[in-house]
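Hello Y.,

Per our agreement to keep a running log of every chain we model this quarter, I'm adding this entry. I've kept the format consistent with earlier entries: sequence first, then predicted structure.
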Amino acid sequence: MTVNMIVPLEVGVAVRNLPLMRRFYEQVLGFAFVSEVAVPPASAARAAMHLDGYTAVRLQTNRGERIKLLAPANTPAAAPAPAFILERPNASYLTFIVEDIQAVVDQLLAAGVHFLTGPERIEVRPGVYLAFCHDPEGNVLEIVQYSDIAAYRPDVHQQEKR
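Predicted structure for the entry above:
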């Protein structure tokens, strides 16, 4: 079976402090607000989301991907972050592929973001640079730059030439 996507990928991120997280993704990362909806308890429970309901805020990147910030009506306690990303069961993170990684790292540092990898990009293999940081609630974000983006994503490069 093949899933035939009809729009760009959307990712849901469970959050505790919706206003804080919305400000970060909009003002620091530059995502555009799309919508906010409150889902009542009965619907949220049937959808296996939360017994007490939740609020979802949709934000969109400049390339059309969307992030849904999902905050339950009753905020759960924060879990401690492990020292290494892959030490947490079911670990996941958001990857942002950018043209100038150091400029993005510098912008995030200026906004007070803490980097797990330090203030400089890391070359993990020839021509591939990355940096890992946390958003305000500890979700992991990966910033990546490829020296040859056309080799990494020829599908996108060909579409942009048209």
